[in-house]
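Hi everyone, sorry if this is the wrong subforum. Our group has a chain we'd like a structural model of before ordering constructs, and none of us has done structure prediction before. Sequence below.
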Amino acid sequence: MKILDILAAYNIHGTFFVNGTNTSQGKDLYKRIISEGHAIGNHTYSHNYGKIYTSVESYLEDHMRLEKLIYEEVGIRPKIMRFPGGSNNKVSHRYGGKNIMGHIIQKMENKGYHYFDWNVTSKDASSATPSKDTIVQAVLQDVELRNDAIILLHDSQAKTTTVEALPVIIEELKKKGYDFHVLTENSYQVRF
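Answer:
Right subforum, don't worry. Here is the predicted structure as tokens:
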């Protein structure tokens, strides 16, 4: 994973909200995230809105499927999580009704999970492959408005410009005196 290589080169640790990947490559990725000192969080096994947002039970089942896989591979049960689409997504209304997110949030909090949204977006999900400059500009512009920033970046094979933008973002933020930290249950939380 190129993003892990970049973070290692800069000696920075990040938080990875992962999906389910029950392949040897995916399992190795979970192991590498943990072994290199990064945090791992649950982003549901399938990331399938039509499946996870039909009911609280469907969400929990998908979440627990990923938790089990992560535990089997790296021996931890992440208590941090991110909802696909964020905690205020409207897509979920199509599948589970207008109040589905409130019910899911309550259930997950009652079970001791801590969810994170973001306050800085890279806009790397706004199109299939936005330009490197679009990503850099979006992050640097939004970070300026925050004392504590939780930056949303995506990592997949299609997100080549995110990988290209990351070193520039890191170098610019370091120049401005920013520190980088992993998220934990006690971290500053952004919630929509």
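For your construct planning: Residues 118-186 form one domain. The two ends are 30 Å apart (CA to CA).
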